[in-house]
Amino acid sequence: MVIPAYNEELLLPRLLDSIDAARATYSAGPAEVEVIVADNASSDATARLAEARGCRVVTVPKRMIAAARNGGAAVAGAEILCFIDADSVIHPRTFDVIEATLASGRYVGGATGVRMERWSLGIVVTWILFIPMVWLAQMDTGVVFCRREDFRAVSGYPEDRLFAEDVAFLLRLRRLGRGRGQRLARATAAKAVASARKFDDHGDWHYFTMIAQTVPSLLRGSKAATDWAVRYWYKPPR
Questions:
Q1: Domains of the chain (ranges, CATH numbers)
Q2: Residues of the chain below pLDDT 70
Q3: C-alpha–C-alpha distance, residues 205 and 236, integer Å
């Protein structure tokens, strides 16, 4: 399991606790799950904490989420790769559900989906807005997974973009799977818990104001879009 992490000393222990619980229930045994923390230029104790918890730590100096995920995957020895954000919590049955999903042969990869760690009216409305997109695209978030050979076949996460790299990666997998009669899975029997940190930081209705800010930035060109992405995703208050 690959965890991209930037200054995550506060929330990383919570995720690692949930991974330990999932490893303990994994039918193949805890030793079969490798946990890799891709430290993406943290200035806090993220790397030391991860090492103390027995994780393999790889340093990724390029400050980009896609690069962190690719850097972690590059040192992974497992045949199945899983990716999860450091502020999340995974389901106790995650590894068995993912293994069974890929073993069926019907799927090239996929994601587990998520449920929110807290709810409010603003978060519910945002959720309702995004659910139809998930259904139509048949792509989800949460723990993203695929076989290592397929990750390499699609060249991993695209490092030419600061955001939506996860969507681009799943689209790459989808194209690969189509040639083999496979599709993307939504392994919702093992939904992860998604952090509400962005809502805590920016407000429970911020997606709607964000859209108003994002569209003009995209229309003005790549530099404006890059500046916006850096402010929102790469300069968090931590």
A1: 2-234 (3.90.550.10)
A2: 213, 215-222
A3: 18
